[in-house]
Amino acid sequence: MVPPPARVTLACNFMPPSMNMCYRIFNGKIVLQQAARNFRDRVRRCCRGKSKIKGLVYLNVRFHWKDHRRRDVDNFLKALLDATKNILFEDDVKVVQLRASKVLGMKDRANGFEMVVSAIPPGCTVGQLEQPVLVAARDPRATVVRCAFPVPSVNTYYRMYRRRITIPAKVRKFRQLVAEQCANRPKILGDVRVAVRFYWQNRRHRDLDNHMKALLDATKDILFEDDCKVMQLTATKATGMKKRETGFEIVITPDIVV
After folding, report:
1. Paired strand residues for 115
2. Three-state SS sequence of 25-54
3. Which of 183, 178, 127 minimizes the C-alpha distance to 150?
4. What is the pTM of this model?
5. Can you give the pLDDT at residue 160?
6. Range 171-193 average pLDDT
7. Shared-domain flag, residues 118 and 150
8. What phi and psi, each to the nearest 5 degrees, are found at residue 57?
9. Which class for 135: exposed (0-12), middle (13-18), buried (19 or more C-beta within 10 A)?
10. In this structure, are 14 and 68 located in the same domain?
């Protein structure tokens, strides 16, 4: 019997659409746009012959562009994960660690991305998964914020009201709580790296990328200038953490090698 793959790599010379271009309003409902459907079909053709990894996985994604235009990494993740789930891995909820980075000014290469899906080995502990966040927090230049309240999913971040997209009251409350927790924290200017760990007391399945988007929207212009300044994004999640309160820890560091 052939053993299951421990790692699958996908490299494409085309870009996923931004989340802002994936959906539109039609007859009062949010529907998937043609650009997102076309991207999904192209990815599926590129994935032919590749094996699906079952169980918990770690994703490492790198986007590269020829120009120096600023783009939000988190906006491109949603379309990419939606296109590759159930093909390279089982589902978004199986992603327990995610790292995404971007490289600008790659004039000798076409716009595109590389994605590596790796199986989480049996016996891997929460502490091992959280190492990237813990290492970032030890940086003396880092801004660290810990909050003991949950982050809303981007699926509930907006709602339809009279054919318009509005922000619900619970999301506005979340943004207010984050702003209060971040009060008197220094804003890091320029390019940054963001590391986040989410933890929940129950074992309910959640998509890591959905909560990441909501948190970045709440902390931009408070802890850092804007989403487009995030050069590297690392996130982990842990469920069933009965000894911890449901919440998150976010670490912002300058994207400068010293």
Report:
1. 10, 61
2. EECCEEEECHHHHHHHHHHHHHCCCCCCEC
3. 178
4. 0.87
5. 64
6. 90
7. no
8. -135, 160
9. middle
10. yes
Residue 74 vs residues 51, 53, 84: alpha-carbon distances, Å: 26, 23, 16
Token reading at 237? 């999640």
Gap between the Cα atoms of 217 and 74, Å rounded: 10
pLDDT in tens, 198-214: 988 888 888 888 888 88
Say yes or no: 94 and 197 in one domain: no
Among 59, 92, 124, the domain boundary falls at 124
Out of 92, 124, 156, pick the residue that ends a domain: 124
Looking at the structure, tell me whether residues 254 and 137 fall in a common domain.
yes
36-57 pLDDT per residue, tens: 889 999 999 999 989 899 999 9
Query: What are the helix (H) ranges across the chain?
Result: 34-46, 73-84, 126-129, 131-137, 169-181, 208-219
Tell me how long the chain is: 258
Other CB atoms within a 10 A radius of the CB of residue 132 amount to: 19
Q: How many CB atoms lie within 10 A of CB 159?
A: 12
Predicted pLDDT of residue 135:
78
Helix (H) or strand (E) holding 145: strand 143-147
Structural domain boundaries, residue 245: 125-258
CA neighbor of 182 nearest in space, from 223, 224, 239, 217: 223
